[in-house]
Amino acid sequence: MTSTAISAQGSTLQIGTGTGTANTVSAVTPGFPTIVTSASHGRSNGDVVAISTLVGTISAMNGNSYTVSNVTANTFALNFNSTGLAYTSGGTATPTQWTAIGNLKTFSGFDGQATELDRTNLDSAAKEIVTGLVDFGQFTIDMDYSFADAGQAALLAAQAAGTLKTFVLTLPDSHTATFTAYVKKLPTTGGVDKIMARSGVTLRISNIITWA
């Protein structure tokens, strides 16, 4: 069988640093995923949009951000289970603007796991385990140092402010992984006959990772 492996060369990591022009929502079809109608929206798979001002029980989506998938000219899907909710009117979907983190050399992570809940009792024939919430762990990167790089500057600012930021990893086959994280560690390294680097930069993931 022919291998389907891909090279990591060409992968990019971006940090959310602003917002674009909001799309007007004209309809929402509840379900899983949730389908949003917005004429000529211009979104792409992997975009992240913040939802607001929806009217109806679908307003449970307001104030949250979701990754876009299944794009058509006038609709896109959001990874939210809205089954049983109702859309009345209104709504906007505001896209995140991204800044690339330059000089990226290596990445690794998404290394968390679910907790184990022990429900064994005196009637059990063996240990009875169920899984609890998933902790998606950390995402670690190495990169060559550049104070002039806007993405690296955004990492510094996020660490100093303790701000939860949105990140998107884009692979060469165009698949994306979107996640929110805190910049936990941002070390700088150097030495004799060495390139200045930021090695072991640690992003602590909060909530889920969305692949598209």
Notes on the structure:
The protein folds into 2 domains: 17-96, Ubiquitin-activating enzyme E1, FCCH domain (Elongation Factor Tu (Ef-tu), domain 3); 104-211, Elongation Factor Tu (Ef-tu), domain 3, CATH 2.40.30. By secondary structure, it is mainly β. The chain has 1 helix and 15 strands, in the order E-E-E-E-E-E-E-E-E-E-E-E-H-E-E-E. It is globular. The model has no long low-confidence stretch (mean pLDDT 95). Helix content is 6%, strand content 46%.
Radius of gyration over C-alpha positions, nearest whole angstrom: 20 Å
CATH class bucket of the largest domain: Mainly Beta
| Helix-strand pattern | EEEEEEEEEEEEHEEE
Largest sheet: 13 strands, antiparallel
Strand content: over 45%
State the separation between the terminal residues, measured CA to CA: 26 Å
Tell me the structural class: mainly beta
Any idea how many domains? Answer: 2
CATH architecture classification name of the largest domain = Beta Barrel
Coarse morphology: globular
Give unreliable regions as ranges. none
Q: Which bin fits the share of residues in helices?
A: under 10%
Average pLDDT rating: 95
The number of strands is: 15
The CATH topology of the largest domain corresponds to Elongation Factor Tu (Ef-tu), domain 3
Tally of separate helices: 1
